[in-house]
Specification:
Number of helices: 16
Distance between the termini: 74 Å
Shape: extended
Helix content: 25-40%
Number of strands: 37
Structural class: alpha+beta
Largest sheet: 5 strands, antiparallel
Strand content: 25-35%
Length: 675
Amino acid sequence: MQVSSVNNVKIYNLSHGKSLPEWLSDRKKRVLQQNDVDIQKRIELIQDFEMPTVCTSIRVSRDGQFILAAGTYKPRVRCYDTYQLSLKFERCLESDVVTFDILSEDYSKLVFLHIDRYVEFHSQHGHYYKTRIPKFGRDFSYHYPSCDLYFVGASSEVFRLNLEQGRFLNSLQTDAAEINVCDINPVHQLFAAGTLEGRVDCWDPRVRSRVAVLDCALSSITDGTEVEGLPSVSALKFNGSLGMAVGTSTGQVLVYDLRSSRPLLVKDHYYGLPIKSLHFHDQLDLVLSADSKIIKMWNKDNGKVFSSIEPQANINDVCLYPGSGMLFTANEDPKMNTFYIPALGPAPRWCSFLDNLTEELEENPESTIYDDYKFVTRKDLENLGLTHLIGSPLLRAYMHGFFMDIRLYHKVKTMANPFAYEEYRKDRIRQKIEESRTQRVQLKKLPKVNKELAMKLMEESELPTRKKKKKGNAVDNLLSDDRFKVMFENPDYQVDERSEEFRLLNPIVSKVGEKRRQKLSQLVQQEEQDEEEEEVEGRGSSEEEESSDDDDKSWVEEVREQRRLIRAEERENRQQEPQRHSQPRFYQIKAGEEFRSFGDVARKQKMQKTSLEERLQREESSGRLNLNDTAVGSKQLTFTLKKVSMNYPELSCFVIFTGCLLVTAAGQMIMSMQL
């Protein structure tokens, strides 16, 4: 079980966790349950509540005892008994199911609409009858008073099939090219159909005539809405006698009162995905709207977000269990998710133990593992003087830093900077004084941090109107915006103009900023005089001279000059490096090695890169190697091993380059060479 909190609303995912494979024996399943902690904590509310590959739609019977789900592959329907918490039956079908509905109180009367235009009826024992509609269907609704099934799809007609007479009746003709969804009001039986053009046609089944048309496409586009095409109706749901919600293919939900042609509220999902499911929660006046990515719960009167659920797999359908806080989702995944939200309502009576379980979890909240630890970077460790703890159990490496105990962090920080509280107190006093000064007469005063940047922004804000329109109003709002206020108050945000990145990215800042620095020094002197005299005085600002064309053309030379200065500084630092490291260095000598000099390793690496001829010449010149001609006419090599780690006598060997063998003094053959 996974617990999440969105907008202070607890959401329990009862399907989260590992699922055991079906082919495992009971003995192996018991062993896994004893050893695996994740399987032990798993809550299997309904046994085998999943599909082989994908679940497309899910429904709950009106009596609340049975949950039916259709999926693939192979196409099938599964019925789960909530009283037994297990699978009741499974029936395979000939083609995939577009949608289905339950006509009775239980599972005894089912209707399936297939992708191949077939309509299949099932009774309690199984398949009962099968017929075909003229066009490909997308949705259907059942009219209980007249026993009529209304089918909509890739056609402008609404096909009617009467189940009492067992024949098709005259279809309803619309002006739309195609119809996506339909629904029937449970109170006054008004039939509504959502079209491809973004309209909702309302029909009265008693007279078989259209009574109203709602243009939802134009109403869904508001000031902040960005759409790429014409919104079509993708979901439709009635609420009581006068309420209706319409979902569009661009991700908007429109809430209507049937007495008005204008929507009461337009809610945008901001994902641009078609709305797939709509439900009303009458107890809390909520609307549950779902697209393929997220399920949003919001108030139907003001649109305020209540909570949201974002499963790992894409959503195909959502079913809300009546009178409770539980909902089921059909996903692009074998597992069907079960969510329990106590804020929506109590648990169903067949799983009432969930209320006790959630209450215990709320009484004993588990603190996250990171609450007692502080994340520090390597630079923080250097400032605190704790670099020697790297690799010890006190520091746990994580990403680009380390986790350390929060108690140790506070203790070390107090020892490293014992006057931190006094500095903090002075900063707070200074901030309070500056806040009180803002009520006085304000002059053109620069902030304490990033004065040159503030002056640059002030100068850009004083540009003529045409140039100002091109740059936009962002410059005007930057200094007055509270989001960027810290950049001119906190010294940590000070721009380091001596850094390498700044000097390379701003090659002409030295020339352009000379005049600004002069003006800045004048303003600083003026502020100091004002503080000494404690009087408010203003001084007119002189107009800046326009920069010459030579400054604009000399950026290449400036970049080269900056690179040259950076290289000179690097050479200076390398020369000063030996003086900084005055402490002795320690080197580890492995067992079996003898220390010669610090350049021994470099000499060995250099010898490995030289050829065999050069190595032989160096050995001969040093006196370690002797080359003699033999009677056979080839070469003979004789050398001695001077440095031996073990107490063996000196070994000598020779090599004859005429198909001979490399033999040691002990008479052992090592290899043969043929030239």
